[in-house]
């Protein structure tokens, strides 16, 4: 496989500030685990993840993408790559995780979603433990692990969002997108204690529309849930995106200078630069520790 660093440690460097808050020191050995999620389908979540991954790779970062949307498994489709093997083959012992991983554009790596598995939460505990061990073995070698979750508030969505060190909720300006995003954030806050969530406005007419959609969501969240939402930007409605999708390619591959391409590059740079001062739950070790704790409690 290409695009990952050898002989790195997954250890997360943590310091305590004067207020006792844990803050992560920016360090090349930290693997950031970021989930891309949404309250409803059709907002372009997977497209946002794929282009952000490519943009990060163009900034010199090594990126691993985990397609955790078991129902749709669109990452490979958007990249125009066809997996010969999936996580199914890892679970049944015929392939290792490295053997099923795919090379994507700009050196990103992709773990394709399993076919025939309705929910990772339907797997046995031993199967999930085996799968997590396999992912950990390869993921810590990367700068970023980006996870494409399913849309909605199902068990799988919570499984991956709760364990990620950062969450990006993708919205658009439609009222249903905002109400469903609110429902998702409510569950993440009430049942899983999530308090810091980033929001990306996608496929909006302009910057003002994106900010307006965010503020509508932010107003409800602050009033009823008392959660900090961080606006990380917008991606404008762009014909170049549709053209790239029809070719099963990312817009950053074909039209990097398009309005959407420029926007994705801007979002990626902000995600990366924000890490200097961003309070996060942890890196790759936190991700797997959280999943194992979830296993232990049910």
Total beta-strand segments: 10
Calculate the mean pLDDT score and round it: 84
N- to C-terminal separation? 35 Å
**Could you tell me the radius of gyration in angstroms?**
18 Å
Structural class: alpha/beta
Helical amount among residues, as a percent range? 40-55%
The main sheet comes to:
8 strands, mixed
Which strand-content bin applies to the residues?
15-25%
In spatial order, strands of the major sheet run 5-6-4-7-3-8-9-10
CATH class descriptor: Alpha Beta
Low-confidence stretches: 1-27
Structure, explained:
With 298 residues, the protein is α/β, with parallel strands linked by helices. The protein has one domain (30-296): P-loop containing nucleotide triphosphate hydrolases (Rossmann fold, 3-Layer(aba) Sandwich). The protein has helices at residues 45-58, 75-79, 87-91, 97-100, 125-139, 155-163, 175-192, 207-224, 239-246, 251-254, 259-274, 284-296, and strands at 14-16, 22-24, 32-37, 63-67, 102-103, 109-111, 144-148, 166-171, 196-204, 228-236. Strand 8, helix 7 (175-192) and strand 9 form a beta-alpha-beta unit. The protein is globular and about 50 Å long.
Task: Looking at this protein, list some descriptive labels.
single chain; 298 residues; alpha/beta; Rossmann fold; eight-stranded mixed beta sheet; two-stranded antiparallel ribbon; 12 helices; globular
Write the layout of secondary structure elements.
Blueprint lengths: L13 E3 L5 E3 L7 E6 L7 H14 L4 E5 L7 H5 L7 H5 L5 H4 L1 E2 L5 E3 L13 H15 L4 E5 L6 H9 L2 E6 L3 H18 L3 E9 L2 H18 L3 E9 L2 H8 L4 H4 L4 H16 L9 H13 L2
């Amino acid at each position: 496989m290409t695009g990952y660093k050898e002989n790195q440690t997954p250890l997360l460097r943590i310091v305590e500030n004067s207020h006792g808050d844990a803050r992560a020191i920016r360090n090349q050995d930290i693997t950031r685990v970021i989930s891309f999620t949404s309250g409803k389908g059709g907002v372009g979540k997977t497209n946002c993840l794929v282009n952000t991954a490519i943009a990060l790779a163009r900034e010199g970062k090594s990126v691993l993408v985990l397609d955790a949307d078991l129902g749709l498994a669109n990452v490979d489709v958007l990249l125009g790559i066809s997996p010969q093997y999936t996580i199914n083959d890892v679970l049944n012992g015929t392939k290792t995780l490295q053997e099923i991983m795919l090379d994507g554009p700009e050196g990103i790596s992709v773990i394709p979603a399993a076919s025939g598995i309705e929910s990772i939460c339907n797997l046995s505990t031993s199967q999930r433990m085996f799968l997590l061990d396999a992912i950990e073995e390869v993921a810590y070698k990367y700068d970023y692990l980006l996870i494409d979750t399913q849309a909605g508030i199902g068990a799988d969505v919570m499984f991956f969002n709760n364990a990620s060190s950062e969450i990006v909720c993708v919205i658009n300006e439609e009222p249903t997108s905002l109400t469903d995003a609110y429902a998702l954030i409510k569950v993440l806050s009430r049942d899983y204690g999530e308090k810091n969530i980033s929001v990306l406005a996608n496929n909006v007419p302009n910057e003002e529309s994106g900010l307006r959609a965010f503020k509508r969501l932010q107003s409800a969240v602050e009033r009823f849930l008392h959660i900090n939402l961080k606006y990380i930007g917008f991606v404008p409605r762009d014909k170049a995106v549709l053209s790239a999708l029809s070719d099963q390619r990312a817009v950053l591959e074909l039209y990097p200078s398009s309005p959407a391409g420029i926007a994705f590059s801007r979002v990626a740079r902000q995600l990366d630069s924000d890490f200097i001062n961003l309070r996060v739950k942890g890196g790759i070790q936190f991700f797997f520790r959280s999943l194992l704790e979830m296993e232990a409690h049910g």
